[in-house]
Design goal:
- This protein has helices at residues 3-13, 22-35, 53-62, 71-79, 96-103, 114-123, 161-170, 189-202, 233-251, 263-266, 299-303, 391-399; strands at residues 17-21, 41-46, 65-68, 87-90, 108-111, 128-134, 156-157, 174-179, 213-215, 256-259, 270-281, 286-290, 309-311, 319-325, 334-342, 349-352, 373-378, 381-386.
- The protein is α/β, with parallel strands linked by helices and 402 residues long.
- It folds into 2 domains: 7-12 and 267-398, Lyase, Ornithine Decarboxylase, Chain A, domain 1 (Beta Barrel), CATH 2.40.37; 22-265, Alpha-Beta Barrel (TIM Barrel), CATH 3.20.20.10.
- The strands form 2 sheets. Strands 1, 11, 12, 13, 14, 15, 16, 17 and 18 form a 9-stranded mixed β-sheet that branches.
- Helix 6 (114-123) runs parallel beside helix 7 and helix 8 (189-202) packs parallel to helix 9.
- The radius of gyration is 23 Å and the shape is globular.
- The two termini are 44 Å apart.
- Bound molecules: ligand LLP.
- Residues 46, 49, 67, 90, 145, 181, 184-185, 217-220, 260-264, 299, 357-358, 362 line the site of ligand LLP.
């Protein structure tokens, strides 16, 4: 979407505003099938990245499945019309009640601990399940988002496979899938291959004779910095295909290959538009103060993540260095620190890029500021608009109608 289109949306709907480009989401989804030309490829969107219902409807209509991580995400995907056999539930540290609630829906449960597996073997002998293993590969765009290796709470250790097989046989469990997720924003193509190999090594006929799919999680990286190279997904996809085809031959059956991207599908489709209301010259810093804040886009503050910012109103302005700050009562409330940007004037509109993944969905109403409105544009038209909650509606919700 170009500057003029974004500015027009800011004018029409007000700021702060999340804008999503449905064409980009659709293109990314279709790209994956081009990059990974394996006939049995299935893409399960990691709904935690962005739960906007219009984005979900678009992906549902494309044929995507869902990677859900809570009972509410499962219920939500079902309500949106995703069939149960296109949903996988990857919980961690789930309660017995949560297990029962989702088990009843017929959605395949992906278990990531020996403890839960043992309980299921006793309480639901004969159950059909998927098992999540720790791939023993560490990668991701921040320490907080690496999910393999020794420091993570996720998955069953590969070393425990013999114990797993014993429990599975004892409970007459049907293991139809094996799963791993290495991390988010995988920096090295090699990590994807190594994790696949580690999972495929234990996915033998002898250990798991009833497999229908292997699920290699999400984590496909997209560039956040302007100078960051895009991964060569064509090369990567070819190698993924080669490895998996060889594995299937050895296993003796063409299994389905699943991936669960979040960022890859939606990150680049979104912008947060915010208006600058205050320019302040402190002794060492020029501060551009906006009408949004870190609870609405927390990645810079939480992970030190870089999000590109453009000044939509003054793109040709003389470059200056700014701290781009929000309206929250904390000093750390910055979208960017010491960032060179075209001169920012009061009432200019800034666009914070790559705001489609893990921004709205990780948002909150700290300082009692409602989350921004959201608009989805596809084929040049606004197809969905969700207004910002009014202050009164927010207060009513907090007071529970009292
Ligand atoms: N599958 C599983 C089991 C996951 O835990 C995740 C992400 C994904 C798939 C999707 O990963 P993706 O393709 O989006 O990288 N809030 C962090 C990212 C947390 C990811 C959590 N799990 C961020 O903003 O960078």
């Amino acid at each position: 979407m170009n500057n003029a289109q974004l500015l027009e949306l800011a004018k029409r709907y007000g700021t702060p505003l999340f804008v999503y480009d449905g064409d980009t989401v659709r293109a990314r989804y279709r790209d994956l099938f081009r990059f990974i030309p394996y006939p049995g490829l299935r893409v399960h969107y990691a709904l935690k990245a962005n739960y906007n219902p219009a984005i979900l409807a678009l992906l549902r209509d494309e044929g995507a499945g869902i990677d859900a991580v809570s009972p509410a995400e499962v219920a939500y995907a079902l309500r949106l019309g995703f069939p149960p056999d296109r949903i996988i539930y990857t919980a961690n540290n789930m309660t017995d009640a949560e297990f029962e609630r989702v088990f009843k829906t017929g959605v395949v449960m992906n278990l990531g601990s020996l403890s839960r597996l043992k309980k299921v073997a006793v309480q639901h002998p004969g159950a059909t399940l998927c098992l999540r293993f720790n791939p023993d590969v560490c990668d991701g765009d921040s320490a907080a988002t690496m999910t393999g290796g020794d420091l993570t709470k996720f998955g069953i250790l590969l070393d425990d496979v013999a114990e797993v097989v014993r429990i599975v046989r004892g409970g007459n469990l049907h293991i139809v899938g094996l799963h791993e997720h290495t991390g988010s924003g995988l920096q090295h193509m090699e990590s994807v291959f190594r994790s696949m190999e580690n999972l495929m090594k234990i996915a033998t006929r002898e250990n798991f004779p009833e497999l229908e799919f292997l699920d290699f999680g999400g984590g496909f990286k997209v560039p956040y910095r302007p100078d960051e190279a895009r991964i060569d997904y064509v090369t990567m996809g070819k190698e993924i295909c080669r490895k998996f085809t060889a594995f299937c031959k050895e296993y003796g059956k063409d299994l389905l290959m699943r991936f669960e991207p979040g960022k890859y599908l939606v990150a680049e489709s979104g912008w947060l538009l915010t208006e600058v209301n205050t320019i302040k010259h402190n002794r060492s810093r020029v501060i551009a103060g906006c009408d949004s804040g870190f609870p609405q886009l927390i990645r810079p503050m939480l992970y030190g993540a870089y999000h590109e910012i453009s000044n939509l109103s003054n793109p040709g302005g003389k470059p200056q260095t700014y701290d781009v700050c929000g309206n929250i009562c904390e000093t750390g409330d910055r979208f960017a620190e010491q960032r060179e940007l075209p001169e920012i004037r009061e009432y200019d509109i800034l666009a914070i890029a790559n705001a489609g993944a893990y921004c709205y969905s990780m948002g909150g109403v700290y300082n009692m500021r409602s989350m921004p409105g959201e608009v989805l544009v596809a084929d040049g038209e606004v197809v969905d608009f969700r207004p910002r909650e009014s202050d009164d509606a927010l207060i009513d919700r907090i007071m529970g109608g009292k």
